[in-house]
Amino acid sequence: MTDAIDATDKPTPRRNPKPEVGKLNGRQMKPATLMMGHGYDPALSEGSLKAPIFLTSTFAFENAAAGKRHFEGITGQRPGGAEGLVYSRFNGPNQEILEDRLAIWDGAEDALCFSSGMTAVTVLMLAYCSVGDVIVHSGPLYAASEGFVSKVLSKFGVTYLDFPAGATREELDDVLAKAKAQADEQGGKVAMVYLESPANPTNALVDVQAVRDARDAASLESPIAIDNTFLGPLWSRPLDHGADIVVYSLTKYVGGHSDLVAGSIAGAKKWMDPVRALRNTMGGIADPNTAWMLLRSLETVELRMQRAGENAAMVCEFLRGHDKVEGLGYLGFISDARQKDIYDRHDLGAGSTFSLFIKGGEEECFRFLDALKIAKLAVSLGGTETLASHPASMTHLSVPHARKQSLGISDNLVRISIGIEDADDLIADFDQALGEV
Ligand code: PLP
Questions:
Q1: Among 56, 90, 137, 376, which lies 20 to 30 A Cα-Cα from 289?
Q2: Pocket test for ligand 1, best of 228, 229, 257 (most atoms within 8 A of CB)
Q3: Which atom of ligand 1 is nearest to the CA of 380?
C-alpha cells in the first residue's frame, strides 16, 4: 500500500523547512540570533521578510496520494507525524515556526504550542494518564494545575501524591516508593512526575537532578515534566538537569507584553508524540495570530528578561532594607542552604518575580496594593510592565486554608513581577506605597 503511494507522491514541501539548526562555519549560533529567522524561508512566501499570518482552516493537498500520506502520519499509521500541512487543528505554518524556535531555547528536539498554559498542562497530563495511575507532583503548583490533578483527573480514577518543593533525595525516594505501591494497588502505573520550579507564588525550588536520580533508582519510566514559566527560557534550562518535558505558560515572559494567552511543552520527540496526537484530537493548538505575536515576542525575550532581572535586583535591594518589609522570597537572596544549593546547580539568574512579605496581613497588603501608582494591580507576570497581586485572596483563593498555610501562602504575601520600566521610578513607587501601610 505504501509503495503505491511512494511511486506517485512527492511529499508536500514544508513551508518552514527545518534547516540545520543554527550552525555558521561550524559555530553554534545563539538563540537570540536564531529568533530572527530560524524555521522560516521568505522565498516560500513571496519574499515577505516576516512570516505572514496564515489564516486558513485547511490546506490544499498537491494530490490525493499526498493527502493520504499526511493522514497516515496524523493518525499514527506511519511514524513521524504529518509531512505537510493538513488542517489547522493539527498544525499551521505560524505554529510550526513557533515550535521550531521554542525548542531552541530549551535545547529540545521538538515543541508543541497550545492556546494557553493550562491547555498545555492538561493535554500533557491527559496524554500520559490512564485509569488507576498515580501522578507525583511537587507542591505548591499553580492553583489551576493542582486543581486539575486533584479535582479533574481524580474523576477518571487517577490519584496523586505530592512532596514539598525542596524535598531531599531520601524524601523523593520515599514518595516514589509510596506512589509505586499506590499504583500497584490501583492496577495502574506512576504516570508522571510533575514539577513546578520555582513554585508559584512561593519561589521554592525543586531539585530536578535529585528527582531524576530518584526516578531512575526506582526504575520508573514515568516522564519528568516541569513547569518552567517563572525562570524560562532564559534563567533555567531544566532539560539539562534531567527533566524530560518542559512546560510553559507563554502568556508570561515569552509573550512578555501581557497581550496574549498561550502555552507550550518541549522535549524529545518520543515524549511529544503522544501529546501531539491528543492535541490533534482535542484541539487546543495556539491560533495563527497568537503564534505570530509570539514569534515577534521571541525576538526580544532575552533583552526583556535581562532588563527585568536587573530591575528586580535593584528593587529587591531597596525593599529588603525597608522597615515595613518582613521579608522577601527573591531568588537573589536565598538564605536556606538547601534552596541555595539547588539554585546554584540549576539556575542562571534570579528572575524578576518574587514574594514580598509585608509586616501585617491582608489589610496592610491591600493598602500597599491600592497605593501603587506605576505598578499595576493585576495577576500574571513576566510582562513589560510591573504587576502586583495578593495570591492568598486572588490566584490561590481556591486553595484550602490549611494547604495555603503549609505552603507558606500567607495573608501578608504580595507577589510582584518586575517589568522593564526605569528601576528608580519603580523604587519610588514601592517606597510611597509602603508609606501608606
Ligand atoms: N503555570 C504557571 C506557573 C502559571 O503562573 C500560570 C498562570 O499564571 C500557568 C501555568 C497557566 O498559564 P495560562 O494562564 O497561560 O493558562
A1: 376
A2: 229
A3: 8
Domain boundaries, the chain: 2-97, 117-250, 301-434
Say if ligand 1 is within 6 A of residue 227 CB. yes
Residue located nearest, by CA, to atom 6 of ligand 1: 249
Task: Give the separation between CA 295 and CA 102, rounded to whole angstroms.
Answer: 9
Q: Which of 142, 227, 259 to mutate to test the pocket of ligand 1 (most atoms within 8 A of CB)?
A: 142
122 lines ligand 1 (CB under 6 A): no
Interval 166-212: pLDDT, tens: 999 999 999 999 999 999 999 999 999 999 999 887 789 999 999 99
pTM exceeds cut of 0.85: yes
Phi-psi group of 47: left, alpha or beta (phi > 0 → left; psi -120 to 50 → alpha; rest → beta): left
The fold for domain 301-434 equals Aspartate Aminotransferase, domain 1 (3.90.1150)
Atom 8 in ligand 1: which residue has the minimum CA distance?
380
Q: Class assignment of domain 117-250? A: alpha beta
Q: Whose CA is nearest to atom 14 of ligand 1?
A: 117
